[in-house]
Amino acid sequence: MSTLDMAPGASPHVATPGGEMYPDVIDLAKVKAAHLPLYTERESATTDGNTAAAMAVLQMWRCLIYPGFPITPSTKFIETIAAKVGAQQAMGGRKRVKLLEAEHAVADYLVAASAACRDLVFVTATSSVGLDHMTETTRSLGASGLGNAMIVNVYRATANFPLCIEGDPSDTLGHRDDGFIQLCCRGKQQIYDTVLQAPVLGMHPEILTPTMPGFYGLKDSHRNARFTVESDAAIHAWQDKWIKPCPLPGLLNGDTAMGNCVTSRHFQGFKINQKRRIEKVIDILPQVGADFERTFGRPGLAFFDEAGFEPGAAPDIAVVSMGPDFGTFEALRSRWASKKGLKVAGIAIRLLNPFPRDAVRERLAGAKVVLVVNQAHHSGRGHLTLDIADALSDLDQRTRIVSAFAGIGGADVSEPTWEAMLEEAHDALSTPPRQSYMVFHEGARL
Amino acid sequence: MSGYKETALKDSCFRAGSTLCPGCMESVAFQNIGRVTDNGVKTIFTIGTSCAEVSTLAFPNVVAWGRGSDSPDDFSRSFAILHNVFESAPTLAEATRDVADVLTDIGAMKRPVQILSASGDGGALAIGLRSLLHTIHRRARITVIVLVNEIFANTGFQYSPATMPYADTSTTPAEGTPGNLNPPLDYLHLAIAAGAGMVAQLSPAHGKLFVKTVERSLQADGTAVIFVPAPCISGWKFEDGQTIELALLGARSGVFPAFVWERGKGGTVKDCAMDAAERPDILEFLGMQRRFSHMVVKDKKTGEVKARPERAQDIEKLRAWVQSNVERVYGLGQLMK
Questions:
Q1: Which residues have C-beta within 8 Å of that of residue B70, sequence separation ≥ 6?
Q2: N or C: which end of chain B has fewer CB within 10 A?
């Protein structure tokens, strides 16, 4: 059929703040019907983190095209998708992989694909300088209102001198002003579950903000673990309960202009609106997480994981960290606390942007000392330290903060390192920290 | 295909009110392309940062795009436009095409769409050459419009890889020097080599051919790339009312010969003789623009343009470049694939 053969005629359309929308142009039921399931029932799988993330997006019927470009340590994400999509194509599957020439092109592609149809989900994975290379466009994407775009960020040191390919979250922390909802995962189950929940959050009509779930390179991207995989049908039922047709038009079903320049007078309004949308995450995320847990029986999205907090009893030392090294702290916490006769608890931050300031303050209130473990290079006291200091600044009683750097460049935060940091926190119960920040490695204060 | 008059009466998706300079060729090109695309198929434009973007999509001052004064009842007359950064326009169009194609493939979308991207030569040939060539290489079924004004006009008339030799730009200033000394990038050849289905160098000064070429591009197999020579009244520094005349003279004198090429069919040069003696002399083209005032001088009484004595050798070099340029474009016409 020639593109000119379609007879003109009136089409149903509705007015929206983003222009006219022609809702009948795209039949989403047919998209869903074309999905070939990856899993027909709940199973357990043993994979690495990249594969766990890839499986989650392969199971979503809204994911039709996967743009990608390889970069260590995220490469296996697109390799896994290419293999599965290829196998499904042999069985009549209609999903596609789109290999582009560079990360910037991938980001451009994400913008336009997400704008073309706001009811589909477009996902890619990247890392480190790959994320940097996308930056010119990720900032546009972050402001765009396109909650159906997702970048899975596999953490790796973004400072490229010297080069380090291991899991250091300086990349994701360096992109906190890109305008994405940034979620940190640890463990394969959490990676898989977070990727399933991310579009529900991003596409919520009050949020409409792209998402950036992330996990540590090598520590989580390359190591295998067993986790539960849900059936595609169960995932679809849960996501469909939350994700409704976008109230704004896309390029394909709309008479609309997107990505305009604006004058400075209107720029304020756009940015305030962007800020307010992302701040809605603080209200909506707990609802999504709770419903996920009710549905699947596993913890859903949360502002942070926590260990050791007792009802009505504030800890002497509260630890703030993120990522899989928090597990080492969890393993030694009770033993070390008993030995010292102290109450020790901790949180691992999961929502990096917007930072859950109030919830963190509430959780840490009453702790005598807060030990913040930063795992990324920062020109000041550490990204997390600044957030925690800000969160605690509203408390009537000032909390003493011990700021530590450990695990930079993806190094393991070993038990001796945790113990050395906790010793500093212990000392700070009686005397101020000896430095504004301290650096630890393999049990030693450097 | 529509007749030229019929096309002229159609409703352009480029509306009044842009802040492009009066006499800008980009505005003329958009008016024409906008009318050609009023053909019963929904139109989507993608646009990279350029004069064309900041002057036509500056909310709320101007959004000079859309078909009809209200959103059309008929979906096929609806229009959408997406802007992103300088180099992005071809990739944006490619992604939109892919989404439309996959939805069509599974029967979820039955209405056709036509997708065009618009970039400047800075966006397409400097910062965006990678994007342009790879989108072509992937055979994206889109029409890529590159508005070639030979400068980064949007940022103040700096050198671009399409700047012709001896031009005075703000980063190749002709202050005691002959201006730009780099020959322009052979973008026509690059587009063909990358795998384009159709490549043209053509401005609306060749009105009928321009309209016909844009129409054909919408049906091209693979990527169609139309480089539109775009005399820039502010950057080239010519007088009011001379845009079309200058575009014609540039084409006829051999600076940017009108050229249309299709894969498997080869290409033809229009309105530009191979023999220099049969073409207008380059001095006429130079004499109309103050960006070459360091090269030529115009007699105010007679209008005669002469090479400045101290630039006589440079003028000869420029003539040699023009001849090689014409021969190069004729040579490209011989390529069949």
A1: none
A2: C
Give the chain A residue whose CA is nearest to the CA of B114: A3
| Residue pair A152/A213 in contact by the 8 Å Cβ criterion | yes
User: Which listed CATH number (1.10.3720.10, 3.65.10.10, 3.40.50.970, 1.20.140.10) goes with A15-296?
Assistant: 3.40.50.970
Comparing CA positions, the residue from B224, B231, B187, B186 lying closest to residue B205 is B231
CA B190 to chain CA mean position, Å: 15
Domain ranges for chain A, please list them. Answer: 15-296, 304-445
A69, A131 contact by CB (below 8 A):
no
Q: What is the ipTM of this complex?
A: 0.96
Of A218, A169, A229, A226, the closest CA to residue A195 belongs to A229
CATH of the domain at B109: 3.40.50.970
Q: Is the pTM of this model over 0.80?
A: yes
Query: What does A15-57 look like in DSSP terms, one character per residue?
Result: EETTEEE-TTSB-HHHHHHTPPPS-SS-EEEEE-HHHHHHHHH
Q: A15-296 and A304-445: same fold?
A: yes
| Number of neighbouring beta carbons within 10 Å of residue B275 | 8
* DSSP codes, A185-219: --SHHHHHHHHHHHHHHHTSTTT---EEEEEETTT
Q: List CB contacts (< 8 A) between A249 and chain B.
A: 80
Phi, psi of A430 (to 5 degrees): -115, -30
Distance CA B236, CA B256 (A): 15
Q: Per the CB < 8 Å rule, is B73 touching A101?
A: no
Cβ of B98 and A113 within 8 Å? yes
CATH for A304-445 is 3.40.50.920
CB neighbourhood size of B113 (10 A) = 25
Cα B276 to Cα A164: distance, rounded to the nearest angstrom: 60
* Residues contacting residue A325 through CB under 8 Å, at least 6 positions apart: A219, A373, A375, A406, A407, A412, A413
Short-list B189, B191, B155, B187, CA closest to B170: B155
Asked if B320 and B180 count as a contact pair (C-beta separation under 8 A), the reply is: no
Of A10, A19, A102, Cβ closest to residue B71: A19
* Residue B108 to residue A31, Cβ atoms within 8 A: yes
Q: pLDDT 10s per residue in chain B (337 long)?
A: 678 889 999 999 999 889 999 999 999 999 999 999 999 999 999 999 999 989 999 888 788 999 987 888 999 999 999 999 999 999 999 999 999 999 999 999 999 999 999 999 999 999 999 999 999 999 999 999 999 999 999 999 999 999 999 999 999 999 888 999 999 999 999 999 999 999 999 999 999 999 999 999 999 999 999 999 999 999 999 999 999 999 999 999 999 999 999 999 999 999 999 999 999 999 999 999 999 999 999 998 999 999 999 999 999 999 999 999 999 999 999 999 8
* Preferred mutation among A25, A30, A31 to probe B, highest tally of B CBs within 10 A: A25
Looking at CA atoms only, how far is residue A114 from chain B in angstroms?
Answer: 9
Residue B110, burial from CB neighbour count under 10 angstroms (0-12, 13-18, 19+): middle
